[in-house]
Every structure is written in C-alpha cells, then in structure tokens.
Amino acid sequence: PGIDGLDFELACLAVSALGGCERCVRAHEQAIRERGGKKEQVHEAVRIASVLAAATAAMRAAAAAAASAA
C-alpha cells in the first residue's frame, strides 16, 4: 500500500526542486516520465510546491512582524 509510484515521484520532485538539487530534480523527472507522467504534471508539481513555500514564508514574515510590533 502507500501512495501510487507516480504520485510519490511527483512529491519527491517537488521537495527536490525546493531544496535546489538539480541532480535530484532530473532523476525524479526521469522517473515520472518512465511511469507515464506528463511534462505538465512535472510543471504543476513544482509550481504547487513553490506557491506553498512562498505562502509559508509570507506567513512567517507576518508573524515575525507582529511579534516585533507587540
């Protein structure tokens, strides 16, 4: 059980992209393509991860600003 192999590779790709590991990104992208994944899925996984990372950074910055203003 667990998650589907393609979904697992998409999640690994997203984490690798955020971590900035080009070698890992390439390896996971290849694994995705070997499992029948499409170029659009690769782009969407990285886009979603980037949006989540940006939202997290914005929320942390807002919390830090609020704490320093108090």
Q: Care to describe what's here?
A:
The protein is an all-alpha fold and 70 residues long. The chain is 84% helix and 0% strand. It contains three helices and no strands. It has helices at 5-19, 22-34, 39-69. α1 packs antiparallel against α2. The radius of gyration is 16 Å and the shape is elongated. The N and C termini lie far apart (48 Å). The mean pLDDT is 95.
Beta percentage is under 5%
Roughly what is the average pLDDT, rounded to an integer?
95
Structural category: mainly alpha
Global morphology: elongated
What's the alpha carbon Rg, rounded to whole Å? 16 Å
- The protein's oligomeric status is single chain
The profile of the biggest β sheet is: none
Annotation, overall tally of beta strands? 0
Binned, the helix content reads over 70%
What is the first-to-last residue Cα distance?
48 Å
Low-confidence stretches: none
Order of helices and strands: HHH
Work out the helix count. Answer: 3
Helix-strand layout with pairing:
Elements: H1 5-19, H2 22-34, H3 39-69
Task: Please give a quick description of this structure.
The chain is mostly helical and 70 residues long. Helix content is 84%, strand content 0%.
Structural descriptors:
single chain, about 70 residues, mainly alpha, 3 helices, about 0% strand, elongated
